[in-house]
Amino acid sequence: MGDKPIWEQIGSSFVQHYYQLFDTDRTQLGAIYIDASCLTWEGQQFQGKAAIVEKLSSLPFTKIAHNITAQDHQPTPDSCILSMVVGQLKADDDQILGFHQTFLLRSYSSSWVCTNEVFRLALHNL
Amino acid sequence: MAEKPVWEQIGTSFVQHYYLQFDTNRANLADIYTDSSCLTWEGQGFQGKAAIMGKLSSLPFKTIEHSITAQDHQPTPDSCVLSMVVGQLKADEDPVMGFHQMFLLKNIDNKWVCTNDVFRLALHNFGQ
């Protein structure tokens, strides 16, 4: 772990925490967002912690499990961390679907918060 | 077009330009990167315009075609634009594959450049 650049440590840690919370109790995700956070979920936009947590809490499944295939982390010029995740998920008894998610993390009052998040299922037209 | 937020216009324009250049002559992509740009291509990191262009130019296919399924754009607190693309691509005679890419765009000297670029094929360990 000492070999990994700091942004990779922070990004990996965040990603692990995010999906763990998401899969067990996503109403707890509030702490990672602030009022300036933006979420785009399957093309729909949500602005601010309250709207984001409401959207995530109201997603229509009882059980959800994410499986991360790959994650990449990069430092940005403004000292933020960009994390991209590719994986698969299973909601209730639905079929397994591929997903793609991106997070922009910023240090805010000594913790890392998510200012930007984009989620898409990997559903193609063809 | 006037109804779309400016970050969506910038992001959409960039994405269109990027894939057009990529599919026709990817050496033309040099302009969009700077010396502090980072690219992560299938898990490998490249820092700076020269290294990035070295990687993109050396990709081992003759023909490449991207088809964008969806793209999303957001403004960031630092006045950058975050763009995420999900799509499919076909290289030479290989089977069509899904891909995921994201770009962080910054306005430097009145021009939008890409400071961060991450690309992954949608290849999972199990199932599809």
From TrEMBL, chain A:
Gene Ontology CC terms, in alphabetical order: cytoplasm; nucleus
Alphabetical list of InterPro entries matching this protein: NTF2 (IPR045875), NTF2-like_dom_sf (IPR032710), NTF2_dom (IPR002075), Nuclear_transport_factor_2_euk (IPR018222)
Keyword terms: Cytoplasm, Nucleus, Protein transport, Transport
Record carries keyword Protein transport: yes
Zinc-finger listed as a keyword: no
GO terms, biological process: mRNA transport; protein import into nucleus
CDD domains to which the protein is assigned, alphabetical: NTF2
SUPFAM superfamilies xrefs: NTF2-like
Domain NTF2: 10-121
Cell compartments where the protein resides: Cytoplasm; Nucleus
Function per UniProt: Has a role in nuclear-cytoplasmic transport of proteins and mRNAs.
Name of this protein: Nuclear transport factor 2
The organism of origin for this protein: Paramormyrops kingsleyae
Taxonomic placement: Eukaryota, Metazoa, Chordata, Craniata, Vertebrata
Automatic annotation (TrEMBL), chain B:
Aminoacyl-tRNA synthetase found in the keyword field: no
Keywords per UniProt: Cytoplasm, Nucleus, Protein transport, Transport
NTF2 domain: residues covered: 10-121
Subcellular location: Cytoplasm; Nucleus
Keyword Transmembrane among record annotations: no
Domain of life of the source: Eukaryota
GO cellular component labels: cytoplasm; nucleus
TM region positions: none
Signal peptide feature range: none
GO BP, sorted A to Z: mRNA transport; protein import into nucleus
Function, as annotated: Has a role in nuclear-cytoplasmic transport of proteins and mRNAs.
Protein name stated in the entry: Nuclear transport factor 2
Organism: Paramormyrops kingsleyae
